[in-house]
């Protein structure tokens, strides 16, 4: 095993986790945009149980990791929760994501899983996500280079 | 009393809750298994940026943390596709193809791609792992994207766009 733990066991675990994650996305029908849109139109609130059930299981794992166990066996890293810093981007991103989710009924994980259920038309949405992510990357590069110019000496 | 609550339940959950809850447990189990083995809370939207690093020279996508995780994120995404296929083709009548119009899928996908990358996460990153961590950042983000999505879906529906 390599020192970062990214050996065959690491890959095997990612495969098992991905299979279960995708199985759940299909089982819950979240891979079908129609079901998500029914939730967002408040006609079937079942998706609350998808997110709630998933957060419950993941939450138990986080409790176990951070309180009982110390380091992860395959990587040796300490267990932590997911805490991203709060800033305006979190707000702006949430709003833009919300418009996109409400328009299409597709989010990233459900989009990949939708391919697995034979929904080839979801490729429109998956292509869109890559275009959006690339555009966002381009825009950030552009914005930071402009900021750099503004702070250049003599400006 | 029981009849009233039953009818409310039928109204709010016309398809029942079993498959939603069981699906959610499997979905969370996938994240939990990877976390317990590796300490990594696997999300789904970072796959977009890390996969772009294979084809784009933009420094934005070539950051070390993206390049370092891009291989396993591809494995994760492919396994998600496979896991969904196992369920759909072994446990149901077969393939499902959406009727939602292409421009909604494409336009929505673009906004999802932009929004999750600005906002540092998606339905799994913030919505499952973030909520499970009781992260304030994630709670704010999820509240916003669910609220905005509900308004958007209701407006689109009111404009007569179906499906």
From TrEMBL, chain A:
Transmembrane region(s): 7-27, 47-69, 90-115, 121-141
The keyword Nucleus appears for this protein: no
Pfam family name, one: DUF6691
Keyword entries, A-Z: Membrane, Plasmid, Transmembrane, Transmembrane helix
InterPro entries hit by this protein: DUF6691
Name of protein: YeeE/YedE family protein
Organism of provenance: Natronorubrum aibiense
From TrEMBL, chain B:
Membrane topology classification: Multi-pass membrane protein
One Gene Ontology cellular component: plasma membrane
Transmembrane segments: 20-42, 74-96, 102-119, 139-161
InterPro entries tied to this protein: Sulf_transp_TsuA/YedE
UniProt KW Kinase keyword: no
Highest taxon, organism lineage: Archaea
Location in the cell: Cell inner membrane
UniProt keyword list: Cell inner membrane, Cell membrane, Membrane, Plasmid, Transmembrane, Transmembrane helix, Transport
Protein known as: YeeE/YedE family protein
Organism: Natronorubrum aibiense
């Amino acid at each position: 095993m390599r020192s970062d733990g990214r050996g065959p066991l690491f890959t095997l675990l990612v495969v098992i986790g991905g299979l279960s994650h995708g199985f759940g996305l299909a089982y819950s029908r979240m891979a079908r945009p129609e079901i998500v849109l029914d939730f967002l139109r408040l006609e079937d609130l079942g998706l609350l149980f998808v997110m709630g059930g998933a957060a419950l299981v993941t939450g138990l794992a986080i409790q176990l990791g951070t309180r009982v166990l110390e380091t992860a066996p395959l990587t040796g890293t300490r267990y932590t929760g997911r805490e991203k810093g709060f800033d305006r981007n979190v707000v702006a991103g949430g709003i833009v994501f919300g418009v996109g989710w409400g328009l299409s009924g597709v989010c990233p994980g459900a989009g990949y899983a939708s391919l697995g259920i034979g929904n080839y038309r979801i490729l429109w949405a998956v292509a869109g996500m890559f275009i959006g992510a690339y555009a966002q990357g381009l825009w950030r590069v552009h914005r930071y280079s402009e900021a750099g110019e503004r702070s250049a000496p003599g400006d | 009393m029981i009849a009233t609550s039953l009818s409310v339940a039928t109204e709010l959950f016309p398809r029942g809750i079993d498959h939603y809850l069981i699906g959610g447990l499997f979905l969370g189990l996938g994240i939990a298994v990877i976390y317990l083995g590796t300490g990594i809370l696997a999300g789904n939207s970072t796959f977009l940026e890390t996969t772009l690093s294979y084809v784009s020279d933009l420094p934005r996508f070539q950051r070390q943390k993206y390049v370092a995780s891009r291989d396993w994120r591809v494995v994760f995404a492919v396994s998600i596709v496979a896991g969904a296929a196992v369920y759909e083709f072994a446990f149901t009548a077969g393939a499902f193809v959406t009727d939602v119009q292409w421009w909604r899928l494409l336009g929505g996908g673009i906004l999802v791609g932009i929004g999750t990358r600005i906002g540092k996460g998606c339905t799994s990153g913030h919505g499952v792992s973030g909520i499970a961590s009781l992260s304030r950042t994630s709670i704010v983000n999820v509240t916003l994207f669910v609220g905005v999505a509900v308004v958007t879906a209701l407006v689109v529906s009111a404009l007569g766009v179906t499906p």
